[in-house]
Amino acid sequence: MNIGLIAHDSKKKLMQNFCIAYRIILSKHDLYATGTTGRLIEEVTNLNIHKFLAGHLGGERQLVASVEQNQIDLVIFLRDPLGPKSHEPDMNKVMSACDIHNIPVATNLATAELLIKALERGDLEWRDAYK
């Protein structure tokens, strides 16, 4: 499965910790992330991340384009609902693309953990047929 990872600045450390905790599951899949998030995950996990540009430089648009081309199977977007900065990725674009193309998306740690456990159990194998 192809997993998209994206995080607002205030959630990047949480994303790193999430990826450390679920490193074994994530290592079995292809990971895609916006540039800074991907670099930070790689630094603490040694996972191989396909990095797009930084979110504010177009990485968010690259991730959305991958979703639209049915190349991403799951998105984890840890967002800051209270204080996103103007340079941070627009969650509405990502969410809209996932909704239109029927891609499971998590926007908080609780849902991310549910999806990663579902992935581990094989509950998302329907994505292979969907492609």
The helix/strand series, from N terminus to C terminus, equals: EHHEHEHEHEHH
The average pLDDT is: 91
Please report which band the strand proportion falls in: under 5%, 5-15%, 15-25%, 25-35%, 35-45% or over 45%: 15-25%
Q: Give the low-confidence spans.
A: none
Q: What is the percent of helical residues?
A: 40-55%
If you compute it from the alpha carbons, what radius of gyration comes out, rounded to the nearest whole angstrom?
13 Å
Number of strands: 5
Strand order within the widest beta sheet: 3-2-1-4-5
Amino-to-carboxy terminus distance: 11 Å
- Outline type: globular
What class do helices, strands and sheet pairing give? alpha/beta
Helical region count?
Answer: 7
Major β-sheet profile = 5 strands, parallel
Describe this structure in words.
- The protein is an alpha/beta fold.
- The chain has seven helices and five strands, in the order βααβαβαβαβαα.
- The protein has helices at residues 12-21, 23-26, 35-45, 59-68, 91-100, 109-121, 126-130, and strands at residues 2-7, 30-33, 49-51, 74-78, 105-106.
- α5 (91-100) links the parallel β4 and β5 (105-106).
- The longest helix is centred in the last third of the chain and has 13 residues, at 109-121.
- It starts with a strand and ends with a helix.
